[in-house]
């Protein structure tokens, strides 16, 4: 019995040392990758199409560099540490017109940027939720509080949806607020009004306003 216990103990110590050695050998970059992928797994595993395929693709630190941003925008958000920038398509809350924008994530806020203008600022502390569908589309809805500062929830389409949502919920420290929805979701248009977005499966991906005025994502 004693030898068995000793053997088991040695195995545990050996294993612990191996794990420690492995962790020490990890580069800072690789550690960040693993931390992010753990969050992605917690949020999306078994819930959103395309999750398994995304596992083998490392997340980039950012999709665009800080100097790709307009100097005016940089001036407006100076003092905030820019962590991630990516091109996105933003859909207007009313007519659902698609517009090319940049999503800029700093350590304290998310910004929707058009060229030299900041179109919307969402402080992480006020963030009410982040929604995506269970299908393979790249739609992300950032839910904001009902107040005079906010025009309504932000509807974005992102090419790298797992990366964007992971970065956003980690920076905001609001992993629990990410929802993966089936069928449809409600979003706020501003001044107490709500809109509906419907997710369906079709032969080719498209986003359009249907006859009932709903935003349909295929």
From TrEMBL:
Coiled coil: none annotated. GO terms for molecular function: cytoskeletal motor activity. Pfam families: Myosin_TH1. Residues 48-218 form the TH1 domain. It comes from the Eukaryota. Transmembrane segments: none annotated. GO terms for cellular component: myosin complex. InterPro entries: Myosin_TH1. This is MYO1H protein. The lineage of its organism: Eukaryota, Metazoa, Chordata, Craniata, Vertebrata.
């Amino acid at each position: 019995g004693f030898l068995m216990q000793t053997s088991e103990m040695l195995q545990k110590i050996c294993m612990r040392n191996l794990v420690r050695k492995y962790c020490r050998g990890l580069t800072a970059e690789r550690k960040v990758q693993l931390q992010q992928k753990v969050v992605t797994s917690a949020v999306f595993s078994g819930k959103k199409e395309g999750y398994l395929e995304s596992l083998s693709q490392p997340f980039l630190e950012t999709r665009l560099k800080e100097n790709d941003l307009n100097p005016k925008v940089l001036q407006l958000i100076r003092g905030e540490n820019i962590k991630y920038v990516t091109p996105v398509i933003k859909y207007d809350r009313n007519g659902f017109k698609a517009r090319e924008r940049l999503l800029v994530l700093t350590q304290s806020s998310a910004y929707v940027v058009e060229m030299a203008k900041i179109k919307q600022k969402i402080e992480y502390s006020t963030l009410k939720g982040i929604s995506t569908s269970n299908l393979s589309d790249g739609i992300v809805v950032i839910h904001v509080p009902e107040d005079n500062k906010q025009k309504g929830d932000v509807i974005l389409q992102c090419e790298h949806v797992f990366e964007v949502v992971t970065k956003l919920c980690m920076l905001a420290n609001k992993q629990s607020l990410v929802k993966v929805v089936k069928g449809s979701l409600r979003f706020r248009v501003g001044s107490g009004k709500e809109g509906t977005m419907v997710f369906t499966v079709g032969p080719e991906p498209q986003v359009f306003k249907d006859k009932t005025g709903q935003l349909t994502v295929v």
